[in-house]
Amino acid sequence: MQENCVINVENSINSGQVFLWKKNGDYWVGVNGQDVLRIDKNGIIESYQNLKTDFFRKNDDLDEIIKSISKDKTVRKAVKKYVGLRILKQDPFQCLISFIVSSNSNIQKIKTNLENISRKFGTKIEFENQEFFLFPDPERLGKASINEITSCGVGYRAKFIKEAANMIFSKEIDFESLKKSNYFETKKSICSIPGVGNKVADCIMLFSLNKLEAFPLDRWMIRILEKYYSNEFYSETKTITEKQYNILHEKIVNHFGPYAGYAQQFLFKMEREKYQKKWL
DNA sequence: CCAAGGCCTGAATG
DNA sequence: ACATTCAGGCCTT
Fold this sequence. Notes:
This protein is of the alpha+beta class and 280 residues long. It contains 14 helices and 6 strands.
């Protein structure tokens, strides 16, 4: 067996991609859209809906990807240290709302906010003798009042959430067709959703729309680039404007290649662990 | 096109 | 205690 077929469930879930997950004995259990997944330590998935979800992107050729992104010693160190770290394939709508909620916030609060949203608007179900709330569908969230959404603790993001949900419900934004579109078309499209800028868009594309060249540039990644890549990606300005972001992204894809998003995930995981940041 | 400021919220910091 | 800062940005001016 190839080493790179390994799935490290723990690391993959604890890498800032998902928020509605908890450890339950030997299993990880979490809400993914209209489904609840239960995953054992080998990555075997049981699901409430009995849907086949490729949550771990098993068709990605990790041997090839790791070879491709290993352009420098920082990434080589990270991929070695976090063998089995995967990009997860999430439900796109939950992913969209999750990262709208994430902006200018922190992991702990994002998690609480999303739990509140699920509890308030999601369908209550029972799965393996436990109670869960599915993530609400676009129609339910789109029809909720701003006050109801605000009561989940999301503050000024409430109106973004409502509008975003309506854009999905009305099919003004259609995830299934975006999965087939290229990176730039997709980005342009989802950046038209209120509350979605460059960083949030890249998260949605990487974690739910199969755009592996997406490379979310958040505060942490900028720090990482300054720390380890000041020669390659030096930038004059402190605040990154939209143009700066795009220029930087182009340089990054030039350096890491078409699977740059995987490089991002390994680097992000490594640096956050260094500072002992909590994930869930 | 860029820079600066404001923004819900609540945990952490001083 | 109480004020200020900060957190996985985005939008408006």
